[in-house]
Amino acid sequence: MLSSKMQEALNSQINAEYYSSYLYLAMAAYCERVDLKGFSHWFRIQSQEEMIHVMKFFDYVLDRGGEVTLTAIEAPPTTWPSALGVFEAALAHERHITSRIGKLVELANAEGDHPTHALLQWFVNEQVEEEASVDTIVKQLKMAGDVPVALLMIDRELGQRTLTPATDAS
Questions:
Q1: Which phi and psi (to 5°) does residue 122 adopt?
Q2: Phi and psi based region of residue 72 (left: phi greater than 0; alpha: psi -120 to 50; beta: remaining)
Q3: In this prediction, what percent of the chain has a pLDDT beyond 70?
Q4: Least packed by Cβ within 10 Å: which of 42, 54, 111, 132?
Q5: Helix H or strand E encompassing 82
Q6: Residues 29, 21: contact at Cβ < 8 Å?
Q7: What span, in angstroms and rounded, lies between the C-alpha atoms of 18 and 68?
């Protein structure tokens, strides 16, 4: 059984994960508008991944006898200064989510909630991967600078991304 404090924190994280999905859809729409269809595709896949995260938390709360409380999702921005700007915003967002997950781990530890701690370890590892992935793209965009051919090469590469949901059942 989840404590009320843990249940509230996990419901807040469900909202944050929904926002992440929503944000990445907004980023996909922006990239589509500026004719970077590969970037748009990458963000669409990222949005789908975030929905998988939502459902992991959603199902976990229910499996622990908790109550899922869905709340309003904040509207995300709709425009960025450049392709680099949109990925820098994505990296900042991933770092924010990593911080949130860290606080959930601290709460689970403080409450001696070992099942929640075990679930959160999956998210800790996932955030390391997500930050590294976005950071690599930011670095590539910085290297590309104002060279249109380089930007188009990155766009083509990002368009090859496929959704590969984790096989871990946690």
A1: -60, -45
A2: beta
A3: 96
A4: 132
A5: none
A6: no
A7: 13
pTM > 0.90: yes
Neighbours of 98 (CB within 10 A): 16
| pLDDT, tens only, 82-95 | 999 999 999 999 99
Contacts of 164 (CB under 8 A, 6+ apart): none
What are the angstrom distances between the C-alpha of 146 and each of 51, 96, 115, 134? 34, 28, 49, 19
Q: What is d(CA 26, CA 170) in angstroms, rounded to the nearest whole number?
A: 28
Q: Tokens 């309003």 identify what position?
A: 72
DSSP code for 64 = T
Return contacts of 108-111, CB within 8 angstroms, 24+ apart. 108/6, 111/3, 111/5, 111/6
Query: 145 by DSSP, 3-state: which?
Result: coil
CA-CA distance, 90 to 154, in Å (whole number)? 16
